[in-house]
Amino acid sequence: MTCAVAALKAFKDQLTVEQLTTIRQVEVDVGRQYQASTAELESLRSAHARERQDWEIERMKLDRELREVREDLRIARDDLGRERETSAALRRAMVEQSNQHLTLETQVSALRAQGHGLAEEVRGREARVGELEMALERERAVVREREQELREAEGLRRKLHNTVMELKGNIRVFCRVRPVQNEEGMAMIAFPGKESREIVLSQSSETATGGSREAVMPFSFDRVFQPQATQSEVFEEISQLAQSCTDGYNVCIFGYGQTSSGKTYTMEGGASDDAAGMIPRAVRQIFEVTQELKGRGWTYRMEGQFLEIYNETINDLLGTGEIDKKKHEIKHEKNGRTTVTDVVILPLESPSQVRNLLMRAQSRRTVHATLMNERSSRSHSVFTLRVSGNNPLTGESCDGCLNLVDLAGSERLATSGAANDKERLKETQAINKSLSALGDVIAALGEKSAADKGHVPYRNSKLTYLLQNSLSGNSKTLMVLNLSPLAAHLNESLCSLRFATKVVNNTQIGTARKQQARISS
C-alpha cells in the first residue's frame, strides 16, 4: 500500500494541471468509493456477525432439542423395557389365572355337589332351631317364674331375718376387752363357759382383821369378745343389724366404755383393711347388699352425715368452717324420719368415700387430755347413714337409718382428773349426764314395753333426743361395751359393766317396725 502511494505521488509530479485536476477528481471519487466500499464491508461484516450469532443460537437450540429428544428416547426405551417386563408378567399371570380358573371350576362343581347335601342338612337344622326356640321360650317362662319366686323369697327372707333379730332381742349388749400392751398391772379377768357370753372380774381386798378377801363379780351379755378377737369377728355378729338397715329398719350401734378402752378403734378402726372398724365395715356391707339386690329390681339411694354432741351442743363434723358455730335443731317428722337443721348431708357413692369422711371428721372432733388418756374423746360422735330403697317390680319401698355412735369416755369425775379444771369439769359432767339419760331412756322403754304406758325421757339429753327414732319400738339397737384389761382401770370397768347390765335387763322394748317410704307417682 505504501509503494502504491509513493508511485502515485511520483506519477503526479509528471502530470499537468488538468491531469492533476482529473486525477484529484478521480481520487476523490475513489476515496468516496473506498469509503462506500468500507461502509458496505462493515455493514456486511455486521450482517454476517448477526447471522453467525443467529446461527449459533439456532445451533444451541437445536443441540438442546437434540438432547431432549435423546433423553425422551432413553425414557421411552426404559418405559418400553418395563412394559415388556409387565407384559411378560401379565402373560405369566394369565397362565396362572387360567390354571386357577380351571381349579376353581373343579372346586365349584364339587361344592355344588356338597351344597345339595348341605341344603338337606340346613332344612333339618331349621327344624331343630324351631324346636330349640320353643324350648328356649319355655325356659324363659321358667326363668320369669323363678325371678318371681326369688322376689317372693326376698320378701320372706326379710321377714325371717327380722324374726331372728327379734328373737335375739331388739336391744343387745356385747362386751369386748381390748388387747394388752404389756403384762404388768393386769386385772384378774376370766371368760368361763364355751358360749362366750360371760366375763368374771376378781378383786382382792384387805378385811378389817387384816385378812384377805377376794370378790368375784360375774357378768353375762349377749356376746363377750376376748382380747384376741379381731375386728372381723366382732363385725360378724353385727353384720345382721347392718342388713336390717337395707330392709327398712332403724338401727343404732353404740360404742361404750371408759377412755382408753378401745371404743374409737372398735367403731372407726385403723388404716389397714384388717383393722377397719364397725363403721366402714357396715357401710361396705350395705353397699354390697344393695348392689346384689339390684338384680332383684331394687334401687337404693344412700346419704350420710357426721355429728358430734359436745357439752349438749350439736356440731357438724363435715361442716366447711374450722369450727361449727351454727345452732342446729333436731326435728322429728311424722313419717319417723329425724333431721338436723343446717348440717352437711352427703350422697354416698362408694365405701372409700366414707373412709375419707371418717378421716375428715376425726380431725375436727373435740379431744382433750385427761388422766386416762392424753387424747380423750370429750364428745359423742354420731355417724348416720340413711338408706332409701324402691322396687318398681313389686311396688315395695323402704327407708332405713343406721346410726353408729362412738360415745365419749364414761369415767367418773375423780378418775378423769377434771375436778380442778372448770372446762374439763363441765365436759365430764355433760358426758356423764348424757350417759345417765341414755340408761334412763332404755329403762323407761323396758317399762313402757311391759305396761305399754309411761313417759320416755328422750329430751333429757341431746344424744337420746337425736336417736329417739332409733331407740324406740321401730328400731334395733346394739351396745358394744369396751373394757380395759388393766388393774388400774378396774373400778371404771366395774362401773361400765354395771351400766351395761342395766341395759341387758331392759332389752325387751317391743317389736321393730319396718319404715315404709312412700313412692311418688
Please characterize this protein's 3D structure.
By secondary structure, the chain is of the alpha/beta class. It has a domain at 170-178 and 232-270 and 296-516: 3-Layer(aba) Sandwich (Kinesin). It is built from eleven helices and 16 strands. The chain has helices at 2-13, 17-168, 231-246, 263-267, 278-293, 351-364, 413-416, 422-451, 462-466, 468-471, 490-504, and strands at 171-177, 188-190, 198-206, 212-220, 223-225, 250-256, 299-310, 313-316, 330-332, 338-340, 346-347, 367-368, 376-377, 380-391, 396-406, 475-483. Strands 1, 5, 6, 7, 8, 11, 14, 15 and 16 form a nine-stranded mixed β-sheet that branches. Strands 2-3-4 form a three-stranded antiparallel β-sheet, with helices on one face. Helix 3 packs across helix 5 (278-293) and helix 5 runs antiparallel to helix 6. The longest helix is centred in the first third of the chain and has 152 residues, at 17-168. It is elongated, with a radius of gyration of 56 Å. ATP binds at residues 257-264. It comes from Calocera cornea HHB12733. One of its GO terms (molecular function) is microtubule binding.
